Amino acid sequence: MSEPIAAAGIGSLVLDAEALYRELLRGVRSLMTANTRLAGIASGGAWLVERLHKDLQLDGAPGVLSSALHRDDFAQRGMASSAQTQLGFDVNGADILVLDDVLYTGRTVRAVLNELYDYGRPASVRLAVLVDRGGRQLPFQPDFAAARVTLPADRLLSLARDEGGAFQFRIQEA
Fold first, then answer.
1. DSSP sequence for 82-126
2. Is the separation of the CB atoms in 169 and 158 below 8 Å?
3. How many domains does the chain have?
4. If you ran DSSP here, which 8-state letter would residue 3 be given?
5. 4, 15, 121, 136: which is deepest, by most CB within 10 A?
6. Under a CB-based contact definition with an 8 Å cutoff, are residues 132 and 117 in contact?
7. Which residues 6+ apart lie within 8 Å of 28 measured at CB?
8. How many Cα atoms occupy the beta-carbon half-sphere of 4 within 13 Å?
């Protein structure tokens, strides 16, 4: 992983989401074991895990994890309209690789871990992300990040996909 890319404002950062996806695919391949199960955080991580599952030619369905019920800002946000948790595998004893598009404060990862443990006790949980933008408020670090990016706190970075399934990033004001 290279040094972080600094971005001053909206439109000043160009990230090739498809190139970063290919790097993520390489990294996920290196983290896989026979017992590894993939689970993506809704929604960007779920898109990634859907495509990774296909590209890695894995059997079964990939998992989707929702952070909605365990968020520490639930009172302000309420129920998000994102996907619900769907795990088509036994969590107990599994090596679970959680995928997300952007890691920032770590609060979503914390919420997703709480959700995951509602389903059982995995042998291990690892994290792979497309982009790590730093700024952690909780002590989480990815086992793999395709890129590191520095953005001002008043900017949001999110993954989008077009009708054909191609990925791109959106940078907008918070």
1. SPPPB--S--TT-EEEEEEEEESSSHHHHHHHHHHHTS---SEEE
2. yes
3. 1
4. P
5. 15
6. no
7. 38, 52, 56, 97, 99, 128, 144
8. 13
Per-residue pLDDT of 128-139, as tens digits, reads 999 999 999 999
Q: What is the CA radius of gyration of the chain?
A: 15
- What CATH number should be reported for the domain holding residue 49? 3.40.50.2020
Burial class (CB in 10 A: 0-12, 13-18, 19+), 95: middle
DSSP E strands, the chain: 5-6, 36-41, 63-65, 95-103, 124-132, 144-150, 155-161, 167-173
- In 3D, which of 92, 96, 103, 91 has the Cα closest to residue 28? 96
Residues 1-40 have pLDDT tens digits of: 445 554 444 445 578 999 999 999 999 999 999 999 999 9
> Residue 45 phi/psi, 5° resolution?
-65, -35
User: Most distant CA pair in the chain: distance in Å?
Assistant: 44
Residue with tokens 């970075």: 157
For residues 144-159, average pLDDT: 93
pLDDT reported for residue 97:
98
Task: Look at phi and psi of residue 31 and say left if phi exceeds 0, alpha if psi is from -120 to 50, else beta.
Answer: alpha
In which domain, by residue range, is 89 found? 5-173
